[in-house]
């Protein structure tokens, strides 16, 4: 249950990205600067934490073992995750981006068969490929149903172009984030802390952010002071606090497909926190009765998901199953 609690806390801080990215977009800020500045500001903050803990040397050693995998999966897990989210904020309100992002709940469950295990069963037989957690997928569907209700409640106010340009990139991000996260978990095999892994992926995704920043600087100039400050807030709240909390939660559930799916499902809380944040900070945001019903279903689905993961936890411990790269 501690992993579930950390996941919910992470969803609260992740929600700041959706709200602040929309505020920066409304203020004329570029999505490229919104994406790049987050990771540029994250770097010194995470580096300071890791250096103070004396863990930087071990991180460098891990990256040197598999440099290409670190760079490629960091590009997927951070680059293909956050750049599309920021792009979508140019065309869609924060609630729509956050709502569409919840496809990551189902995406995480659907990708489970891509991974296999190296654990040994009590009879000495190697563990088989991980099966899709159907129970967790069912609970994810409940959560997704609540999200769809919220989308229906607001869809009459959204243009078709906003749905396409604001929705399709988020679907890409919804698959990229859990895929990159799981691949890096398996590559590290528990040898690094969540903070170390976040720093390592930030460092390895820097080439993308540098290229985007240079292009934006040459083409349109530097970001405004307001966007720079807001990007710094996003870097601290979402980039550092939320990411470390979420990675810590997924590390706790690393050996249990059911519990891992439940942790990823807690990110549905982002919809709740984003709607409330947008309602308070961005004028014109309204929440209908149908939207509130959808919020209630999301919360119920998260609770059911946590109970479902608890039932599967004991079985996973008995079988000694661990996720590793295919």
From TrEMBL:
Identify the keywords attached in UniProt to this record, alphabetized.
Answer: Membrane, Transmembrane, Transmembrane helix
Record protein name field: Multidrug resistance efflux transporter family protein
**Membrane-traversing stretches:** 31-52, 73-91, 103-122, 134-154, 160-179, 199-222, 228-248, 260-281, 287-307
Q: Does the keyword Transmembrane apply?
A: yes
Output the Pfam families linked to this UniProt entry. EmrE
* Record carries keyword RNA-binding: no
From which residue to which does the signal peptide run? none
